[in-house]
Specification:
alpha+beta; 5-stranded antiparallel beta sheet; 23 helices; about 40% helix; about 20% strand
Length: about 600
């Protein structure tokens, strides 16, 4: 059927009207959408758009300084500039072009370029990848000159930890470590620790020593700087973020607080210099009135600076290959048989328990027989008749074998515990070893065997199962000299600050005998430290020790450990010291001269001044 001319015209007009209606509907829909985007949600989308142009840059907080008791800076932060790259903003073409440019600037080898390329690809979802640390001003200038061609390349300012005195007090100061993905994930899982949110991948934090203990004080708070970037991620210096979005304001960083330590860097240096010729050991100089540690060393030590920007593979291998384990803090974690430096405790127990009188004498022929067992005195020729004071002066083993037998192991252990031996000192610095004060109950529990008398003789002269730390021994000497124990601390104490003291039940008449014996050790001919520990600058009282060492692996006896404990001034005790030189030999010849140097320095800096 064919339409008439009028009908065809009418049908055409209807289609025109339908098209116009469709176009009008679409137009109004588009108009409505535009209104929705621009008017109704305009503010929201503007913020979103502007925010995409704004990059929040971290302004690192300057880490607080660590200073000694006189304000000498032992650790500080100095400016450093790092080459960073934003892998999220790199196209493949950009990446290759930038690698070529940076390779020329930093003189990268082919292998280095490949390493950098792999690093970028491995971290392609990261906005910050460190390519070079501590770049020079010349390198920085070349990069800034071509900044507009280096899409995604930035130079970040980072304060770098600096230890001006190198290895000095390294086990006290500690070191920093880089936060990796593992640590960061652990922080995120650690609910309720708002402080942890400050950290990001690649940040540094204290992982050892004072750097770790006072991390919250030292680190400060990072600030943020909102900067406007163009479509290629380049910073636009003529546009300010707060002009686009007032809510984007600069947050200034808050620097970390300084930490003042109790140690005196001058005494610390004397200690460490005097110890240099020995391979390993530990030593402490303690203020026995306040508990402040004036110097403390563990040897071998390490270079904290090597950890400041990520430890190199070469240095880490060097550390790990060292059989003496430089990262091990012998001063608080190392425990050893104290040798003859323990004899004052046996003397205290014997005199107070009245198993022998102050003037009662025991004959030393150079050996001691217990049943079929024969134990030797260190002086094979014998000391002759010895009372308590002279037994300490000459370190007569036979005297202490006999009084130890009369006491029994449980009484010796009881008196050792009065000086907190076998217990942590409470230094609150890093986990410390407790050591061991054995008794009959302990052996029955651990070995399921009864205690035997011969073992008592060994403990009576500081051998056998007995184990103490250097810090415990310095504290013990303070307890003998002052009649109370102090809690060791690396924190500087203000004048009149309350001191935590624990009284030792030590009768005056017994204390007098023991201290006179220690005085004679150093200051009268025949004393075991007369030649090595006597000073013409300050009167020192002390006790030498030599601890036998047996290698169970090699099944042979090694060179003895050299011990020495002391206090000074002898007539008005202020400081106590303890030292062990591992496999050093005789305490009087090896350890005592080191303490003498430190005591001389103490006299110069604290008494003469």
């Amino acid at each position: 059927m064919q339409l008439s001319e009028d009908n065809r015209k009418e049908f055409f007009e209807i289609r025109i009207y339908i098209c116009i209606a469709v176009f009008l509907v679409l137009f109004f829909l588009i108009l409505a959408r535009v209104w929705h985007l621009q008017i109704f949600n305009g503010k929201r989308w503007r913020v979103f758009s502007e925010a995409n142009r704004i990059e929040l840059k971290k302004i690192p907080a300057v880490r607080g300084k660590i200073v000694d008791r006189n304000g000498v800076i032992l650790a500080k932060s100095s400016p450093s500039f790092d080459l960073m790259i934003n892998a999220q903003k790199l196209s493949n073409a950009d990446k290759e072009r930038i690698l070529v440019f940076l390779g020329d600037v930093f003189d990268w080898s082919t292998e280095k370029k490949e390493t950098v390329r792999n690093k970028i690809e491995r971290n392609s979802n990261q906005s910050k990848i460190t390519l070079e640390r501590d770049i020079t001003f010349d390198q920085m200038s070349k990069i800034l000159t071509h900044q507009y061609d280096l899409h995604g390349v930035n130079i970040d300012y980072e304060p770098t930890r600096v230890y001006p005195y190198g290895v000095l007090a390294s086990h006290i100061l500690g070191y920093l470590g880089e936060i990796g993905k593992k640590e960061l994930n652990r922080m995120k899982e650690d609910e309720g620790t708002a402080d942890n949110r400050q950290y990001g991948l690649g940040d540094y934090w204290g992982v050892y020593g004072i750097e770790k203990k006072h991390e919250n004080v030292l680190r400060g708070k990072h600030g943020t700087l909102p900067v406007v970037e163009d479509a290629r991620g380049r910073e636009l210096s003529d546009e300010k973020a707060y002009d686009l979005l007032p809510s984007f304001q600069e947050q200034k960083p808050i620097s970390g607080q300084d930490v003042k330590l109790s140690i005196d860097s001058r005494l610390q240096k004397v200690f460490e210099d005097a110890f240099l010729k020995h391979e390993s050991g530990a030593a402490v100089l303690l203020n026995i009135e306040t508990g402040e540690i004036l110097a403390m060393l563990s040897y071998p030590n390490f270079k904290p600076q090597e950890f400041a920007r990520g430890v190199s593979t070469q240095y880490w291998q060097e550390i790990n290959k060292n059989n003496l384990n430089p990262m091990y803090n012998r001063a608080v974690k190392g425990v050893y048989p104290p040798g003859s430096t323990f004899k004052m405790i046996t003397a205290h127990a014997a005199l107070e328990e009245k198993v022998i009188g102050p003037e009662d004498k025991i004959f030393c022929p150079g050996y001691y027989r217990l049943g079929r067992e024969v134990k030797r005195c260190w002086n094979r020729g014998g000391h002759g008749w010895m009372n308590a004071k002279n037994a300490i002066k000459h370190s007569c083993d036979v005297y202490f074998y006999e009084v130890g037998r009369r006491l029994g192991i449980d009484k010796i252990a009881e008196y050792a515990r009065k000086y907190d031996l076998g217990q942590v000192t409470g230094i609150q610095y890093q986990p410390e070893a407790k050591g061991l004060v054995p008794d009959s109950k302990w052996k029955r529990k651990v070995y399921e065997q009864p205690w035997v008398a011969g073992e008592t003789l060994s403990v009576a002269i500081g051998q056998g199962y007995l184990q103490t730390s250097v810090l415990q021994m310095a504290r013990m000497v303070g307890g003998l000299a002052k009649g109370y124990l102090v809690t060791p601390s690396l924190e500087y104490m203000e004048i009149n600050q309350k001191v935590n003291r624990k009284k030792v039940d030590l009768p005056n008449e017994i204390q007098e005998i023991i201290l006179q014996g220690m005085y004679d050790v150093v200051n009268t001919p025949g004393g075991t430290a007369y030649w090595g520990g006597r000073s013409n600058k300050i009167e020192i009282a002390g006790k030498t020790g030599t601890a036998q060492v047996v290698s169970f692996r090699a099944k042979k006896q090694l060179e003895d450990h050299a011990w020495y404990v002391a206090y000074a001034p002898a007539q008005d005790p202020k400081v106590a010291a303890a030292i062990i030189v591992e496999h050093g030999g005789h305490g009087g010849a090896v350890a005592a001269p080191i303490i003498k140097k430190v005591m001389d320095a103490y006299k110069e800096y604290y008494i003469d001044e």
